[in-house]
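haha ok so turns out i had the wrong file open the whole time. this is the CORRECT one, sorry everyone. sequence first:
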Amino acid sequence: MRTDPLSYLGEELNSLKQQNLYRHLRILEGEQKARTTFDQRSVVNLSSNNYLGLTTHPKLRERALAAIKEYGVGSGSVRSIAGTMAIHMELERRLAEFKNVEAVVVFQSGFAANAGTVSAVLTKEDVVISDELNHASIIDGCRLSRAAIKVFPHKDVDAARKIIEALPAGQRKLLISDGVFSMDGDLGSLPGLCALAEETDCIMMVDDAHASGVFGKNGRGTIDHFGMHGRVDIQVGTLSKAIGALGGYVAGNRNLIEFLYHRARPFLFSTSHPPAVAAACMAALDVLLEEPQIIDRLWENTRFFKAGLERLGFNTGLSESPITPVIAGDGATAMKLSDRLFEEGVFAQGIAFPTVARDKARVRTIVTATHTREDLQFALDKFDTVGRELGLI
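then structure:
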């Protein structure tokens, strides 16, 4: 009998279990809402990227259903062959207008947008200068490009400058940072990095996934928040988080977008968005423009929850956004904190190495606009109970 050539994977899983790092997938049994049901338990949901509650917004539901009736459930092809529909082009036009850029291309996910763009615009002759805490999709895109990768300490503009000054003057360079860092919730050093890119003739790229719909006027992102319009060459945004649907996009000048139409592999080799998704994304843009008070509610809730965690004495790092880590230290403790909170009715997922540093394991909390004060106070009370039980406060 043939032995299982994948038996080593079972050994790896057993190792995770022995370290108390093994996780099973929590199953959502209803809508993605602020209070919902996972694994047959009613919980306050602090693990969703649904910042504005748009996954269930009536306007998005209505537009998605109308698009299905008019266009069907799928596009039937990749964009570069027969899968570019009028609704896709209209979404890209609307996004470009929203982001104040010449053009936009939509990808199937934010991960595909980052990885596909970096690997398309660079070659093995080029170099990337990347913040050490940039998203995994940026890291993978850099590897796929075969460009040299130089990493600078988190948000350290001076260190990035030293790296760049040591490189050959004529070498093509891409300087890249997250707008909002997904694990710590702090903002990238965009003003300093944009100035550095201009001084040293670097391409400036920002992954603004967790800022889309959250920062800037009507949720236009950190480029708008910092007043950096015209100073960022490549902007990446998401349609999967605050926008409430699915996908990612790249915004920039017309040459960049036309080039990605021809060379970005996820664009060339993945079927395009279902019409319902494109329609829902456009409806979300309407909500951002017509109901800006929903973003105000997000920030009111964020300030309330952060203040509560700080009063309790938790280590919440350097968060400046609705992403607020509760840092527990080692991975096993973080997972125990997450599990006990879930038992008490709060879903806050544990995050450990290799996603974060070994001594910075945490539960990551994300507040949304649709949490009530009662929801948030309930969660704070449970953090108080469990945090004392585990000796974290």
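The CA atoms of residues 316 and 326 lie 5 Å apart.
again sry for the mixup
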